[in-house]
Amino acid sequence: MTSEWADNFVTETLASIPDLAYLYKTYPHNVLRADxxxxxxxxxxxxxxxxxxxxxxxxxxxxxxxxDAGFTDTVDPDISLVIGVEIDEPFASPxxxxxxxxxxxxxxxxxxxxxxxxFSPLLREIIVRVLSHTRRHIDQSNFFIGARxxxxxxxxxxxxxxxxxxxxxxxxxxxxxxxxxxxxxxxADAGLGDxxxxxxxxxxxRVTWAPFYRLKLPRCIKGTDAKLGKQLGGLxxxxxxxxxxxxxxxxxxxxxSHQACVNHRFGGTWKxxxxxxxxxxxx
Length: 283
Prior knowledge:
The structure is a single chain. It contains eleven helices and eight strands. It has helices at 3-13, 20-26, 30-45, 64-68, 94-99, 121-139, 151-157, 160-174, 180-188, 240-243, 277-282; strands spanning 47-50, 54-56, 81-88, 106-108, 112-115, 219-221, 235-238, 262-264.
């Protein structure tokens, strides 16, 4: 995909999306455009996306987790989006957060995604949030200096932060309170009280990270699980070793894990701290 193709895609193919072209062109860094583009392309065309520092560990058709989730040569389940786990350390200490340069201690992968269907409601919500966050960031920026995007802003406005929030919020909004994901979330909060609002004693009925903590098998939610009048589209979450193997956290196995479908080499060249003199001298 060239920059010219991307510009035409945003300004012509998706010209009907309000403010898209304007907000896309305000981004000062390619990584911001790349984040938004991956959501737009998969929403509009469907298909499979991976960053340029991704190497295939096996054919996508033979990925164990996808086959476990019901994807075969002849059958595709009622799923519009397949994602993986990247960071799975919800109990990480402040020191560990600092050492890994983490903004959050858990989150989904967005460097590899699979959209078996076009126009996923999940991707639509992600796109809407990215555009909304971008607009707010511009409005809150200094008029003379303009909008600036550091690592935190990039992760939260277009990257894994907004991506993870949107997924959990769509599940919370569309699933009935009797759904196992919500019930597991509420049960996991017992004794913690994070889901109990100050004004009441009953916990908020929503989906948290709990159902995806230490995930060993794919966790799939069918589109038909949604409440009447709500659109979910169906979601599958793959265990960390499918796409997030090779990491030194989150109980991930090595690149040669028998569950590995891709290997992410974590080039991370967009991050300012990874372009510092320490990287070149110390690795």
